[in-house]
Write a structure and sequence with these properties.
CATH architecture: Clam
Structural class: alpha+beta
Distance between the termini: 42 Å
Order of helices and strands: HHHHHHEHEHHEEEEHEEEEEEEEEEEEEH
Number of domains: 1
Number of helices: 11
Number of strands: 19
Length: 474
């Protein structure tokens, strides 16, 4: 009887632990999220309706990733050395907060405070001929707000300020980086590289759950692609919460940077396929690409060198993932880095999640809000003529240290692809969603529109992002 009671006690304890673990795995499907906001023709304020994910995340998980807003503002201002509202508004002061329409385009010098592609989209969509989605004919400028990152990110960045070193060519000496943004105040002869490295090491905390609904459109606005997926992303190096710095001994020994696991739900022929990518810190070491093929119930290793291949049905290559996912290397497709401009730009961001694409009005964007933001303009000129892009031009926020827009030019000097973010901001978390992304091909006139959300995944462990984890996701 004692043995039976002991067995029952252990069994019930394990059952309790399993149930607690399950309760913390708050994966929300695309279908569930789109009850709060449809991908098209829906002005619903998504973030406001779900209280910035408070309605979705368990209370204990939400508490782990939210912090005192005043503390985040204070720490981040100390880190970057300013607050954005204090440094903008000096250029073209006649452009004030308020609502604007196409009738105002010739009245104000908007071309001076918008990058060219954004200014060109401020127009009625063409009624015929090759065209893209996401023109806009009206928007609102709201007063500039102070932005910041999560408190652990701010504290880690502050703690390690000045410790990250670069070699003579401007590349990071990996042993000197611990955690946080490596260069919160870019300066010196390698300033441009420092700005790019900040994106390379940027944060949505240490673990992330991501969902996306992707739509592709031909030059006559015919829908030719629809994809759906969920994804995990886990940071293995540079962590700001327990376990700090490195996820585990394996990550440190193998010098692993991050793991990204992408689980397809549509189109139908890709359903159940899972791609897992383990990135390494060494820029000259190929990443580990694994794919679980659902129809075969097998995992296959893929070549990791074909990073210029386009994503299925989309206007990006692998190295355009999240906007820019290319390793900075002095040997493999090296760049010349330059800061070619600085100034104020009107940039699209949303706190409530109300912007939407209106199919009923020619696929134009509605409910757009812009803020004046202090930005750098960085040019990366490719030194290897065998690479798909001849140069990239970035518009990067000086306070957030993340980018708004990237122009990618081909080797003939033609604007080839662009990647634009309408960021969503979660104020209690201090994190940013790539809420709506527009990726466009300007040579073949094709559009990709991403309707996406992400939030911290506090439950993620090594097991979830392992090979066995790939099989379990089916």
């Amino acid at each position: 009887m004692k043995e039976i009671r002991l067995f029952l006690t252990i069994f019930m304890s394990l059952l309790l632990v399993a149930s607690v673990g399950w309760a913390q795995k708050y994966e929300i499907s695309i279908k569930e999220l789109e009850k709060y906001k449809a991908p098209f023709d829906d002005p619903a304020p998504f973030y406001k309706n779900i209280e910035w994910f408070k309605k979705i995340m368990p209370p204990d998980a939400y508490k782990k990733v939210t912090h005192d807003v005043d503390a985040m503002k204070r720490v981040w201002a100390e880190v970057v050395g300013f607050r954005a509202p204090d440094v903008v508004g000096k250029a073209f002061p006649e452009i004030k907060p308020g609502k604007y329409t196409l009738q105002d385009k010739t009245k104000y010098p908007f071309e001076k405070v918008m990058w060219k592609h954004l200014y060109d989209r401020f127009n009625a969509p063409p009624k015929s001929g090759p065209r893209h989605v996401a023109y806009f004919t009206e928007f609102e400028i709201v007063p500039t707000r102070q932005y910041y990152h999560a408190l652990p990110v701010g504290e880690a960045t502050k703690k390690h300020m000045g410790t990250v070193k670069q070699d003579g060519q401007g590349y990071i000496i990996n042993d000197t980086y611990v955690a946080g943004f490596p260069f919160p105040r870019p300066d010196g002869p390698h300033k441009a590289q420092q700005i790019i490295y900040n994106w390379d090491k940027s944060y949505n905390l240490d673990t992330e759950y991501y969902v996306e609904h992707v739509f592709g459109y031909t030059k006559d606005l015919r829908n030719d692609y629809e994809g759906m997926a969920t994804a995990y992303q886990a940071r293995l190096q540079g962590r700001v919460k327990d376990p700090m710095a490195w996820l585990d001994t394996r990550a440190k020994d193998q010098q692993e940077l991050k793991v990204f696991q992408y689980m397809s739900q549509a189109p139908r022929d890709l359903f159940g396929n899972v791609i897992s990518v383990t990135s390494y810190i060494d820029p000259n070491r190929d990443d580990l690409f694994l794919m679980y093929i659902n129809s075969l119930r097998r995992i296959r290793k893929l070549t990791a060198s074909d990073t210029q291949d386009p994503a299925v049905g989309q206007d990006i290559i692998y190295e355009d993932a999240y906007g820019f996912n290319q390793k900075l290397s002095p040997k493999r497709y090296p760049y010349k880095y330059e800061v070619i401009g600085e100034g104020e730009y009107l940039c699209p961001i949303s706190w409530d999640g109300s912007p939407y694409l209106s199919t009923k009005e020619g696929f134009i964007m509605k409910n757009l809000q812009f803020e004046r933001r202090p930005c750098w303009v960085v040019q990366m000129t490719q030194l290897d003529k065998n690479y798909v892009y001849g140069k990239r031009i970035w518009y990067v926020d000086k306070e957030m240290l993340i980018f708004w827009h990237i122009d990618n030019y081909d080797q003939k000097g033609r604007l080839y692809r662009t990647y634009s973010n309408t960021w969503g901001f979660l104020p209690e978390m201090g994190i940013y969603n790539q809420f709506q992304v527009l990726a466009l091909d300007h040579v073949d006139t094709h559009s990709t529109y991403y309707h996406s959300y992400s939030y911290p995944a506090t439950w993620l462990t090594r097991g979830d992002i392992s090979m066995s984890g790939m099989v379990k996701t089916k």
